[in-house]
Recover the amino acids of this structure.
């Protein structure tokens, strides 16, 4: 597996930065987790609500399947309804909660765990 899979325009300029980006990276260096990618999606605030996140995440899913990944996983803050709807719409399932797993505004927050099985793993 490649160390990183990426989709999106990735174009940057000094004033505005990247508009949309989805990337995956190995979930763990341990061999038993080979084939599992952890992913992240970023859409610049002024591009949100236009389908940019869906576009880059769908492309990332395709790239991950082409690279032979078994699964993509991530975490979402519970109140982030837009991100939760995005991943659900692309076939991810909410499978649990990490308690006080990420910090936001100086506070430890719970995170919803999402995953999508890919390729043969999705039909086994």
């Amino acid at each position: 597996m490649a160390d990183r899979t990426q989709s999106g325009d990735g174009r940057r300029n000094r004033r505005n930065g990247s508009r949309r980006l989805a990337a995956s990276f190995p979930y763990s260096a341990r061999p038993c987790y080979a084939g599992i990618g952890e992913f992240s999606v970023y859409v610049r605030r002024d591009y949100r609500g236009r389908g940019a996140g869906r576009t880059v995440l769908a492309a990332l899913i395709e790239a991950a399947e082409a690279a032979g990944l078994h699964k993509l996983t991530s975490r979402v803050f519970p109140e982030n309804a837009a991100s939760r709807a995005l991943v659900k719409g692309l076939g991810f399932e909410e499978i649990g909660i990490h308690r006080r797993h990420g910090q936001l505004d100086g506070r430890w927050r719970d995170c919803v765990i999402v995953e999508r099985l890919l390729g043969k793993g999705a039909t086994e």
Notes: Helices lie at 52-66, 81-89. The chain has a mean pLDDT of 88. The first strand starts at residue 5 and ends at 7. Strands lie at 5-7, 20-26, 36-43, 71-76, 93-104, 107-117.
